[in-house]
Amino acid sequence: MILQKETLSGGSADFPGYRPAYPVDLHCHTTRSDGADTPQQLIDHAADLGMKVIAITDHDIRPPKEIEIVNNTGADAPAGGTSDSAVSRKRVDAVDYARSRGLLLLRGIEISCETTVEDCHIVCFGCDWDDPFFDKLEREVVESKIRSYRELVRRLDADGMRMTWEEVLENGGNPIREDQVQKKMIFELMARKGYQPDWSAAKLLVKNSPAYQVLRQKPDPVSVIREIHRCGGIAIMAHPFLVNEPVRLPASTMEDRTDDGTGGTEEAGMPGNMTGPAAGTMTRAAYIDRLIEAGLDGIEACYPYTKTSYGGTMPPGDIEREIRGRYTDRVSIISGGSDYHADFKKGVKPEKARIIGEAGITMGYFENCALLQKVAARA
Ligand SMILES: [Zn+2]
Ligand SMILES: [Zn+2]
Q1: Which fold has domain 24-245+283-378?
Q2: Contact 342, 41 (CB under 8 A)
């Protein structure tokens, strides 16, 4: 007999023995971007764990108004498959569904910014999601992905791995549209054509070759903050210590920003067309100062750095203290979130798998933060 989730008070069968450290998690992903939980599964997991507030903040895609709810009514269905008749699907309001599970759902987005900087991400809440800004953002993400994949195929072909974009779209007899291309399909084509033994070897080859790194165009965070405010929302910088130092900015961006006096210094060796006399480097702190001057509302302090690509040596607790010390008086929100991606479903080692509520903020802070209360009311 499988233990039913309902019998676990404040626990989840998927995270045995785990208790969240925080009841409010302002940074989570779903299958709408690169997470492995559907929105329903994220909400269900959070509810099972006894969370009070959860945010859906997928990469570069607006949060859903409605989500698909799958009810498996065939409780005694044999393992390994359920008949269609045992599964019912319906679309319901996402916030209402979360509320029915005892949760407040905040609908947000995490916008990848700054073409030449890893990883400047801005988490936004409380926007008018129908604003054309988001149509344009989503369209540009798709188009720039297509451009970068086409460029990768061109470079591979030029290096003797003869292939065309049309062959990528043929997808081994399962034709797809341009906007459906994933990088893996290019790796699969390399393998099908015999240039690599399999797709994962092809992936490694591309990953380890500087010549095959094609930058995707990303928006400038200063204009993103401005647009988010125009849409009625708030902007919070995610995982500030994942911004690699020194921060290198392209010449055109630097020229736009010379009036604030924190401009960069000399810089050589900028990639491709980013080289220019005004191109510069700066510290992470100076870079964050620019965002604060642009009106940044919050910054993420509590975050599981040791489970990410963070290359520094500071423990997460020290990072949190430093961010609180530096920015508490300079931004309205000191945020926190797990950056949950349902890693446990992706074969990530348990000690590296991010879990809902392992980072976040307290209920007291959430209830006393005027800006968060404002966006919560607009959820
Ligand atoms: Zn991020
Ligand atoms: Zn994230």
Answers
A1: TIM Barrel (3.20.20)
A2: yes
